[in-house]
Amino acid sequence: MTDDVARPGIAPGARRRSAGTMVAELYGELAPHPGAEPDAYGLFLTRSLAMGWLDDTSAGGGAEDRMTRAPGLWCVNDAGWTHPDAGPGLVAWFQVDVTAPAGDRPLPVQPFLSCAVDAVARAGTAEVTAVRLELPVGGIDPRTRPPYAPVPALRTAGWFEAAAAWTAVRLDAGPASLEGLHVYRDGRLAEWSAEAIGWLAEVLADRAAWAGVRAPLSLEVRRVDPW
């Protein structure tokens, strides 16, 4: 059997396209579960695999082994509970290599943050008060966006309409990566959740791409009111 034999769900000769590196840092407080010695990388990897979000087509092994693996939203690069470059109050951080999104899909920030929060929950009880993100805006090509979805995440705004748990937040973006892009630095989210923060980041990433930004986009979303 040659390496080019087709199998269900696998396109012969298909290569994974990377959008770049995406990073999330969660800040706040973490009360570890008694006796727990969790591995942030292992928890995030396992959760990614369980949810069908892990792309392991670029993992090691021979060509035959690689053809049995599944594509997904990202490859896991690294993760941890501490980092020498992080600010005070770090709960955990996660870094992935994102698969280039389809033309009518945003960067997968919502599932990325959901997976991060799920991994942290296995380690202890967390109160997250701020999320810092680095988004590979250069991996978004606005020219591939169809007319019905120029900013894909906007199609799902209705999901948050029934949340009715408005939370005041402060948004900071920069340092100069949003030149030419108008961003409100004080506002409200429909709810304080990984999904809402991720949705906001997805919209801003596409807005930045449309504005011609190619450098990684740094964002911080911080809760102003109590949870």
Fold topology:
Layout: E1 18-32, H1 40-50, H2 63-66, E2 74-80, E3 90-99, H3 109-123, E4 124-135, E5 167-174, E6 186-189, H4 194-210, E7 217-223
Antiparallel strand pairs: 1-3, 1-4, 2-3, 4-7, 5-6, 5-7
Features:
227 residues, alpha+beta, 21% helix, disordered N terminus, 7 strands, seven-stranded antiparallel beta sheet, 4 helices
Can you put this structure into words, describing what you see?
There is one protein chain. The protein is α+β, with helices and mostly antiparallel strands. Helix content is 21%, strand content 28%. The protein has helices at 40-50, 63-66, 109-123, 194-210; strands at 18-32, 74-80, 90-99, 124-135, 167-174, 186-189, 217-223. Helix 1 (40-50) packs across helix 3 and helix 3 (109-123) runs antiparallel to helix 4. The protein is globular, with a radius of gyration of 18 Å. The relative contact order is 0.18. The model is unreliable at 1-14 and 179-185 (pLDDT under 50).
Strand content: 25-35%
* Overall residue-averaged pLDDT value: 84
Tell me the helix content. Answer: 10-25%
- Supply the number of helical segments: 4
Widest sheet: strand ordering: 2-3-1-4-7-5-6
- What sort of overall outline do the alpha carbons produce when their principal axes are compared? globular
- What is the helix/strand order? EHHEEHEEEHE
Structural class: alpha+beta
- Low-confidence parts lasting 5 or more residues at pLDDT below 50? 1-14, 179-185
Main β-sheet: number of strands, strand sense, barrel status? Answer: 7 strands, antiparallel
Counting DSSP E segments of at least 2 residues, the number of strands comes to 7
Distance between the termini: 57 Å
The value of Rg in angstroms is 18 Å
